[in-house]
Amino acid sequence: MDVSLTRGRKGAVRPAGVKNYGADESASSALDFSGRPPTPERLKRFRVVAEPGTRVRAAGPMRDDPVDTDRFYGAFADRDDGARAALDNSKTAMEEYAEVSSAPPRPLSASFCRAAPATGERLAISPPQAKAEAVYRTARREQLGTSFRYQDHPERTKRADFVYGKPSVASSATVKELSCPVDHPEYEEREAVYRKSHGAYRPGEQRTRMLDWSTACADPKDTRFGVVPARPEKDGVGKALDAARDPEATTSRVVPLRVEAARMFGTDQVGKARPLGLAPYARPPPERFGRPSSTKETWGAAECLRGDYTEEEMMPDSDLGRATRPGFRNAAADPDRVFGIPSLRTDVAPRQVSVAEPQNFGQDAPLKDLVNPSRFMTMGIDHSDFARQRERDELRDLFASIGHDLDAATFDAVYHRAATVYDVTDVGSVSVEEFKRALGDYLGALEDEGAEPAWCREHKAATA
Asked: Fewer CB within 10 Å, N- or C-terminus of the chain?
């Protein structure tokens, strides 16, 4: 009995799906986590073994042919000194150079002889050669001033009369004719093609339609068309401009009005309507013809664009910008009353100063200082510091620190001028800006006149 078949209403029916009869698919085996399942063979090359000392290879080349690890690429070089000699630092650089330069020529090994020229000579290192060049095989094989050929050229190339290349056929044309050919048949054919396709005629060239003039018994190159007058015209332009110079010109004649009227009614005149013999208008023609579309006063395009509103109708609505909802009107008896809280709270005492304080109590810098900050802002000095009232001793110390150490009498005179002349602060008080201006007057007088100003001498005399 075939267990893969089951009985149905219509006979044996094969069950759907795939069943693995060799594997254990019981619940106990499915819940057994004792061992890790092995990696399938088709997926092993994608796993990366992260273990120390393991060579990691990409998944793609793992299917390639195995690499022969005993195979070496490149040319075999002569045996060099070992690691012990390379790490030996007992000799100086000059001693090693002298030893290499004085060493006799050393023949190369058999591997070098295989790559030597066909002459069979065994190459050797030249004693006077520098140490930096002595270790290179190409420097010994391809010496300066000599050529080295990897292949032997044919014998015919070694003759003195041998020349490379293929000789050209001798031509009688000059370099100018070859560079700028003139009336070349090939160019004439090309010009004929462009003349036919694009109408590209040369300046002054006669346009032709490639007609066969042999059948017409006339050639446009040597034939003039038209009628030759019996008596050639002379001074034609002058006679056309001045009819009195032409004796054969027709003169004006006086004719009857009837004849001229008959001619006017019988012929058409350029730029004028042909008269039909109607009687002329008894009155001037109207400005417009036709009947108006409506007798009532209606709007036109101009009225639609401009409108026809009175001044009261063009005024804004009475409730514009006002609350009209009952109970929500901000109506106050005082018209100057302002509702809300000002953004700059100068009406209350400032709270504790903090960086996180969002309210401005009038102590922050205004917009003017933010847009145009003071040049002393990096030092923590503001414009207001120059206009603040200072004591006498503080002013003297400030200006003495910048090199203006004045004696007592001169300082009193400058201080008195700053307090009485300049009005940056209140009368009698002096700021840095006021003292700087008064000191500028004193130093300017010393530089220009070579002596103290009069106001300084008068103050010293009064206080002496």
From this structure: N
Could you tell me which of 181, 344, 237 has the C-alpha nearest to residue 191? 181
- pTM beyond 0.90: no
Instruction: Quickly list H helices, 387-453.
Output: 392-401, 408-420, 432-449
- How would you classify residue 312: left for phi > 0, otherwise alpha for psi between -120 and 50, otherwise beta? alpha
What domain count does the chain have?
A: 2
Q: Is residue 121 part of a domain?
A: yes
Nearest to 107 by CA among 117, 92, 122: 122
Would residue 420 count as lying in a domain? Answer: yes
* C-alpha span between 197 and 206 (Å, rounded): 16
DSSP secondary structure string, 220-252? TTT---SPPPSS---SHHHHHH-GGG-TTSPPP
Q: Mean pLDDT per 10-residue run, the chain (464 residues)? A: 48 62 65 75 79 78 76 63 71 68 50 41 46 65 71 82 82 78 72 86 81 78 80 81 80 82 81 73 70 74 86 86 75 78 84 80 78 81 83 88 88 88 79 89 88 88 83
Range of the structural domain that residue 390 is part of: 382-463
Show the tokens assigned to 337: 């009353």
